[in-house]
Every structure is written in structure tokens, then in C-alpha cells.
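=== Structural record ===
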Amino acid sequence: MRFVLAIVALVLAAVMIVLGIAQRTIFLEPAFTSLSSTVTGDAKYTVINPSALAGSTGSQTINVRGDGAIFLAYGRSEDVAAWIGNDAYATVGLSEKTGELTSTVTDAVVPDNPNGTSGAAATPDAAAAIVNPAGSDLWLDEYAGTESVTTTLALPAGISVLVASDGIEPAPASIRLSWASDNSTPLAGPLLAGGAVLLLAGLVLYVLALLHLRRSRRPRRNLPRGPRMPRLPRAPRPKAIKASQITQSRRGITHRVAVVPMIVVSGLVLTGCSADLWPDLSTASTTTATPTATPQSTDSVEAAAELPPPAVTVSQLETIMSEISRLSAEADTNLNTDSIATRFTGPALEQRLANYKIRAVDPAIAPLVALPGAPLTFTLPQQTNSWPRVVMTVIQDENDPSIPTMAVMLKQESPRANYQVNYLFALEQSAHVPKAAPAIVGAPAIAPDNKLLLLPPDQLAAAYADVLTQGEASPSYELFESEGDNFRIQVADLNAAKIAALPSTASIDFAAMAGSDETVALATNDSGSIVSVSMTETETVKPVDAGATVGPAADALATKALSGITTTAKGFQNTYRDQLLFYVPTAGSSDKIVLLGFAQGLITSAELP
């Protein structure tokens, strides 16, 4: 019976080990699934659409080959289509019939008018001359190389990949998509380990059976005595065997028989240590990374699915702000007006250009506060599929209180234009940014003439200018919160100081009015709005007596640098541009309009005609 059990254990062990090895050899599935496509034609851009990227499950490994420079980027499908616009391009998709990649070429479209393009995602593009997609703010990420570029991504639905060279040469033709297959064999480990255990058990049973058989053949003791047998003649004694004639001891044989199975068992156990050979008994789930790392709730995701997408993701905006911060720091140091104009526009650009002009004349003038690129503590992109687009963000470094908290309003005019800083404010210390939708949802833009707010956005600057000049006598005074409004205090103190320093032979007049810059408003959760406006302040200094002269104060270095005058009999005028950020509550609310942040800068100073 022991031999039978040993044989059964050894046979089962052999079967299990063979099956375990077969799982990792002849039955092993391929580690990758690959599809390839060769694009024909001279199209400068190739788009790998979401159907091709979803040709198999898992992350996508994209390999692009060409003769020269290769550029690869991914972004929302609508953004990729908008960037291409009316240019010719090739599309790599997936055939539902054959399961293979297909490539088609779409010819260039001539717009109906020279100023616009057709299609829902296309808009008048002031930057149509830009043909190189590298560096566009629309991309979630981008890669570049020469002759070959390979990257592994985990792109969800709604994301497309753009492949190009430099926008002048044709796009690379060879495209290969690969997906890592799950070729794990969770039964291989248990089969090999179980086979090793059965092999060891079978060998033990076999040895025990041999020992039992050996003991059964020995003479038995205490046998009953029978009749006495006659004595037989003594058999001849065998010759003694010399030690040199013994070639192998029984102990050596036993040792070898025991060592061989142990070596086999150890090898099998060690080969079964890979995680792919064992079933996954862990309960924790693994989440695949997506292009945006913004935390999102189920409600937010469902809401986002029913609304236009946000203009940018948080990770996109972090990259954009990092680039703008780096460029502005270089431009501020070198007084580079051309460079700063690529990333600044509107009143934010006007204030910086004036500062460059002043510092070029008088280097003792301090530069403007540097724009930090991180960390972003608040992000509110516009909900939109069209252009122009706006995004608001707040940058606050809690570890360095010397750096003021900055609020930035960015604008992207067209798909091929990059985001530019339109407004740049220093937030009030007591400012509390109202609750707004999460970045994954974004906020709709509010029309400038919206009557559902306490004050329409396009009337906000004029009303505040009236409060600034008339104070409590202004009809709009009660609409604005005075507590915590440091800008009003600052303007009043500066004007009082200028009046006190003015000689008796001169007069000074102050005025304020709404600026001509675009009003930008984004909705908040309480049906209110965050509104950015500009305002223009002027101070006019004139002599009051015939023959008298006036000039900038001794400490007015900026005025002297801009005007170039020391004294004049005509008088002079200084113009300041104010950037103001307000929270405007909904109509009928008992709350007041609150100033959240501001920036003021001298932009012109000139002699009166």
C-alpha cells in the first residue's frame, strides 16, 4: 500500500509540475498586443483618434518613427481638432471590421471668409501663422525626439494624440500602438509548489515503503520451539571483502537520493516566486492615472459630463504658469518688451511695459513684484468649447509670507495662441475668495451686461470710480463694502500727500473713470460673480499764477523718467491704470460688492499741450 501511495503522489507531482511549466511556456499568452499603420501622403499633422487608442485594454505604448524631428502631444479631441483647424491632416483610426489600424487623409478646407473658419470648434485664429504645435498650451503633455519617439500613456476616452514634425515637413509616417497584455498565470505557482510538495511526499513514502519491506524480511525473534532438527553441515565462510573493493556506501546512495529531490524542489519553489505565477488575493484596487490629477467627486464627474468642458486642467495650468513665471522673470530682468508681450496682454502688459520704460531711464526704480509660478491654491477655468477662453487662478506660498498672494486672470484668444496674463492683482489680506465650482467642472462666463447681479459687470468700474472720487456722496457708495477696502485708503492717503506737498503756485485735480479694457466675469456657486475690470486715474498739475512753473515732486522718480521734464509752465498730467478684482453678489442680495484685489501703476506722464 505504501508503494501505491508513493507512486500516486509521484505521478500527481509530475502532472502538476508539467502543467505548471506549460502555463509559463506553451500556454503563455503574448505580453503585448500591437497594431501598426503607415500614413501616406504629405499631411503635416496626423491625429491618432480615441478609437485607435482604445484598440485594446490597458495603457498605450505609442512608437512613432520618421526621418527627422518628431513631435507628439495629446489633449482633448476637441482641442486637437481646433488647433488643426482647416489644415490638411491624416487620421489614424481602428477598423471595426478588421480590427486593424486605418489611415485617412482630410484635405485642407478653404474658409468662407478670410477672418474665420467653419466648424463648431473652429474660431477666428489670429495666430494662424503658427504651424509648429510644440509648446501649445492646449496639450496635456508633449514629447519630442529625432527619428523615433516612444512613450507609454494611460489615456481615457475623449483624448487624441497629435503627431507632427515641425509643422513644415510632413508628419512621420510609421505609427505603432502597443498594449501590455495580462499574461499572468495565477495557477502556475500553485501547480509548481503543489507538485514540489507531492514530489517530496512521494519520495518520503517511497523511502518508508522500502524500509518497511526491508524490516519485514528480517528473522523474527521469540519464535515457538518445535521439534529439534538434525544439525546440518556448516556452510563455508565467504571471503572477507577489502575496504578498497567497496565502491559506494549505502549511506552515500541514500544521501544522493535525498539531495536530488531537494535540489529539484528548491528550484521549483524559487521559480514560483514571481507575482505573475500566483493569484492576486489583495482587496485593494489600483487606479490608473489619467492626464488630470485633480480630486473629483462622483457628483462633480456627473455634472461635468453634462456641461461644456473646463478650458484647462489643473496640471495644464501648473505647466502654463510655470512657463509664464520663468519668462516674466527673464523679461523683468532684461527689460525685454518683445518677450513679455508673448505672455502678457491688456492692463497687465501695459503696467509692465511702463515699468520697463521707467527703469530704462532710471535703473534705481524698483521692478514690479515677480509673478510666482506655484503653488496654485485656487483654479477656476471657464466652461467652454470655443474661444476666447479665460482662466482665473490664485498663487499663494504659505511658506514665504513676504511674497504677496497673487490672483491672475489669463486669456487665450485662439487655439494656436497661448494663454496670456490679462489681469494681475495682489489680493487683499482680508479677501475671501467665494466658493466656486471645482476645476474639473469650471464656471460659465458672465455676460458684461448681465442684469442678474447686484450690478452689471460693465457698470462696475464706473460705479467704483465714482465712489473713489465722491466718497459717501456717490449714489453707488452703499453698493460697495468699505471695510477692508485698502485701495480706497491708499488712494486717499496718496492724494492727500500730493496736495500737501504742492506749492501754493500750483493746483492739482484728480479724476477717475472706467478703463477701456475688457471686463471678465466668472460665475460663483451662489449665483454671484468674480469680476475683473480696469480703471483709469489721472492727476493734472497746473500753475495758478502767470509765469509760474510746476514740476514733479523730488521723490517722483517714475514721473520724471516717463515725462522727461523737471519744470514746465504748462503743467503735466499723470495717468494711472488700476486693475480691480471684485466679488459681485446676485441681484436682490443683502451682501455688498467686495474688492478682492487690486494693482495700480503709472503708465504715462506728459506735459500738457
